[in-house]
Amino acid sequence: MSWNLISLGEITNIRTGKLDANASSANGEYPFFTCAREPLKISSFSYNCECVLVAGNGDLNVKYYNGKFDAYQRTYIIESKSKEVLDVRYLFHFLDKYLVKLREQSIGGIIKYIKLGNLTEAKIPLPPLAEQRRIASILDQADELRQKRQQAIEKLDQLLQATFIDMFGDPVSNPKGWDLVRVGEVVNEFIGGKNIECPDESDSDYKILKVSAVTSKVYKPHESKFAPNTFEPNPLAIVEKGDLLFSRANTTELVAATAYVWETPENIVLPDKLWKFSISDESKVNKLYLWDLFKNIEFRNELSKLSSGTSGSMKNISKGKLNELKMPLPPKELQDKFAEFSTKLWGQIKTFQQSSDSLDSLFNSLQNQAFNGTL
User: Fold this and answer.
1) How far, in Å, are 76, 132, 180, 263 from residue 53 at the CA level?
2) Residue 54: strand, helix, or coil
3) Which of 10, 53, 62, 113 has the fewest CB atoms inside 10 Å of its own CB, making it the most exposed?
4) What angle do CA 214, 208, 201 make, to 5 degrees?
5) Single pTM value for the model
6) Which residues make Cβ contacts (< 8 Å) with residue 365, sequence separation at least 6?
7) Do 370 and 138 form a contact (C-beta atoms < 8 A)?
């Protein structure tokens, strides 16, 4: 079935938020949409509408919202000019699929961004309104199945975080009185790769990780690009099973994201913006303890304070500052006990993730059918 392709600029109103990323309020009543996947909170609102929100830089993503909210200045707010012409849920699902194209069109150095024209010039297939609503309903139901599986994974992760707090206490206030040491006392080096310009096509055996490979705090080796044909990596920068990876440069919300490598394909190489922990004396610290320490929200706030940068969308953490940060160091036996529990729990999470990946494949197939007129 063939439908007319219409430019989004003809049938939508597109604007951006006005606020800085630090305008959030922890106890705010309204959502505050930034470029991160999860919204923050804010005490006031500037918008009250049904819309689709597209992150304009960093971790490009798409969200749907209907109600009162506010938005960061690099977040695009897209409304249907007429809901009798364009259903907003249909628009959301189209843009969710169109993210692949937006990422290809993004420009910039370390932090990629999209321009307004990337959205206004996007061509959306426009079937009759009833068909839009039917498509949106099918995709909503399929997406709900995906979300339920993802929620189950998140609950297991929450259990792990709760167990960490139960065993070790808040790592910042340190109520259990563990010894405090500098990060540099347990991590002897942070090893990174080089800034490599990756071509669109290559016969190289090596792939260079993107920063997005760790931003979800779970290692994603498919978030990578082929290296140039002549690329020869530093052997120390090759990712191996058991590595702990750290994002030393990213947006305010995503800097300092940390991910543990349970398994990895061969020949995956670090870029310059990702480091791996090199620990010479593992009798002092367990990497799985370190991982959950660095994932802990209170400790991550301390990590974020180390970041610097003139741009509101890009922050950097230096090795010097990170090495000087104080961290609690419980007895190694207790760390190992936590690591044993973590390993078992992540075994369950892996099983759930495989099911989630299957649902993602099904959803992607439905998306393809929906927008080529075969659903």
Assistant:
1) 6, 19, 43, 34
2) strand
3) 10
4) 130
5) 0.69
6) none
7) yes
